[in-house]
């Protein structure tokens, strides 16, 4: 029962589930950490990941736990620090054999490294890593849909950083399509895909469209309790204005989210 509930919270249709059931196995601990992180419960997520690694210091799940640690840092600006975790994740994935979970962990780590490189301005390195991730996935059977979605997100972010607004929108829409196909699973990924699309539309100069996507996604983040994504959307809407909320309301949402994230163990970084 706990396995199903935790998997649904992490990668299914109930991302707003809180409190989460107890976790008893490494796989359950990883799902619990992913679900907690999506809600902004960073301290809880890190605690579960640490327990996972104590119980299983090597193999694919340990690699996935390191990639998840990296994502927690990256969400709050710690791209340089995240790269160390993703690098260790890739090393563990390489030593975990050639099974499906090891390949999943390897792709996760490489996509994470691409996002880390992007965050510190190493755009060419990010592009090479994304190409590598695509090559790893080509021809592989049974890969979780979330990997293709993550690849689309980072590809869109790279296009935005490179000033290629139209390409960014194309990648972001691909992420939305992949997430839509996965529903009712990957509900949180569906919401984040809209966040990425809103940012891409803004980059492409389609401000009205961006505003509409962001406003709708903001409602979803409230419904599912996705605090980190809610904060990101409020930051975007603070720049482009909301069609339904005043600037004061948007600022209040942004500041409230930041405060709660800090109380829940979020570690802000500008490096």
From TrEMBL:
This is MalT-like TPR region domain-containing protein.
């Amino acid at each position: 029962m706990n396995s199903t509930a935790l998997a649904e919270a992490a990668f299914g249709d109930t991302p707003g589930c809180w409190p989460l059931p107890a976790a008893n196995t490494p796989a359950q601990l990883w799902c619990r950490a992913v679900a907690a992180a999506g809600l902004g419960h960073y301290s809880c997520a890190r605690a579960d990941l640490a327990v996972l690694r104590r119980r299983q210091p090597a193999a694919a799940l340990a690699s996935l736990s390191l990639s998840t640690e990296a994502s927690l840092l990256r969400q709050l600006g710690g791209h340089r620090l995240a790269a160390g975790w993703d690098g260790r994740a890739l090393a563990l994935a390489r030593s975990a054999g050639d099974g499906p979970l090891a390949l999943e962990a390897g792709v996760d780590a490489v996509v994470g490294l691409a996002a880390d490189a992007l965050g510190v301005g190493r755009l060419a390195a990010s592009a090479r890593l994304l190409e590598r991730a695509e090559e790893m996935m080509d021809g592989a059977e049974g890969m979780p849909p979330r990997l293709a979605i993550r690849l689309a997100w980072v590809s869109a972010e790279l296009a935005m950083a490179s000033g290629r607004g139209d390409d960014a929108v194309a990648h972001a829409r691909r992420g939305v399509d992949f997430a839509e196909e996965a529903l009712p699973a990957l509900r949180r990924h569906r919401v984040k895909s809209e966040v990425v699309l809103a940012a891409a539309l803004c980059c492409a100069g389609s401000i009205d469209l961006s505003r509409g996507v962001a406003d709708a996604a903001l409602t979803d983040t409230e419904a599912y309790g996705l605090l980190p994504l809610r904060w990101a959307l409020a930051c975007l809407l603070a720049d482009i204005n909301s069609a339904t909320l005043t600037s004061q309301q948007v600022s209040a949402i942004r500041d409230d989210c930041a405060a709660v994230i800090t109380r829940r163990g979020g570690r802000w970084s500008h490096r």
